[in-house]
Amino acid sequence: MIGMSTAPAGRRRGPSKGDLREQAILATARDLLSRKPLDAITIDELAAGAEISRSSFYFYFDSKLAVVVALLHGLAGEVGRDAGPWLDGAGPDEPALRRSLAALAALWRDQGRLLTGALAAAPGCPPIARWRAWLREAHVERLAARIARDRAAGVAPHGPAPRVLAEMIDDLRTAAFAAASDPEGLVDDLVVVELRMIYGVLPAHHAEG
Amino acid sequence: MIGMSTAPAGRRRGPSKGDLREQAILATARDLLSRKPLDAITIDELAAGAEISRSSFYFYFDSKLAVVVALLHGLAGEVGRDAGPWLDGAGPDEPALRRSLAALAALWRDQGRLLTGALAAAPGCPPIARWRAWLREAHVERLAARIARDRAAGVAPHGPAPRVLAEMIDDLRTAAFAAASDPEGLVDDLVVVELRMIYGVLPAHHAEG
DNA sequence: GAAAAACTCGACACTGTGTCGACTCCAGCC
DNA sequence: GGCTGGAGTCGACACAGTGTCGAGTTTTTC
């Protein structure tokens, strides 16, 4: 995940033993999260996976949630991946929206339990709450701006305040992906639904009987 | 909440001491839930509120979540309240949808923490998961049927499978209400958004500039 | 090769949950 | 009146998971 060669090499210090242990904890966490939900994972397991004692774990992280925060930061860049063309564009640009949603769906497929666990832990864990709020805000703000632009251009109908609508879309995405066993199978339907929420029914989707 | 007069009366046994204690536990739970989230409530507090020892609590309920389940069942009737006219009707019947959402919003206003706590506990607590699934299914099924009917009648445009669309609408409601500090303030916007998800933009909401 | 830092761990304290068995209380019955 | 059995009560215990502390060992640095 770090991408460095595994050679500690004699000369020039590579990652210190501590760095390796820290990575081992993170790797163990990722691994366990692929198999069970966050709150079924104990610090014991995390420590065992990194081959250190439970007390040593605390040398590296303050708590289980601190590990989650670290994993989350590793994800920060990926969350908004490919959303640019959609968020910065204008009008019902279906392909751009689909690309944005496809990237998000892939993330939920790979990191679903991490995201689910983080979401569940957010109330009661300020750092995670902040991460979540920051991410959500980034999306909501740009999407709201886009909606306002489209309305001003007469491309989108009036309705709920852009910000409220954007929040609902964000909520819907999160809820739908969190509940789905196959996030990627949801993309096409989400595309249609989001476009409807913003623009109403597009001509191509109209039906007569 | 039980509705009986408070007189234990000399003759004819009223509720037994145990029944009263059970009610006291439920009342304490409701009370605490109005002030803090479920997982900040301990069995100690519940027992103290009912003026019994912690071990005695277990005479009445198997666990904290069993109390939640009991509270939830007390709510079962209210959740779908006033949804009938909307779910059994046809076409974009905005007033009916609004009444249905208003009733739901009132429930979230009064029981938000209970619902939030139950939702969070559902994975990992089969009885709660079943309650949630049953309720959701009841809504989704009727809504999906309604959407299918409207499409067949040419009133609603085609799009995602009725069931999928109904699930998204259910998810959106839950997510929006769970996140809102003022659920009732969301009703009008939800009405517009849900109608759009099903029917597209209605004439009255079109804008030209 | 000695001081400092990085690291490790066992032992402990704490919180919350759930169980067990002994005890009390009270109603109904001989 | 005294007996019995079920309802209700509780203290003591066992357990899991978390987090802390201080005494050790290893590694780095000069």
UniProtKB/TrEMBL annotation, chains A, B:
Residue ranges the UniProt entry marks as DNA-binding: 42-61
All residue ranges annotated as the HTH tetR-type domain in the record: 19-79
Chain positions covered by the region annotation Disordered: 1-20
Keyword DNA-binding appears in the UniProt entry: yes
Keywords: DNA-binding
Pfam entry (one): TetR_N
Protein's name according to its UniProt entry: Transcriptional regulator, TetR family protein
PANTHER family: HTH-TYPE TRANSCRIPTIONAL REGULATOR ETHR, HTH-TYPE TRANSCRIPTIONAL REGULATOR RUTR
Domain of life assignment: Bacteria
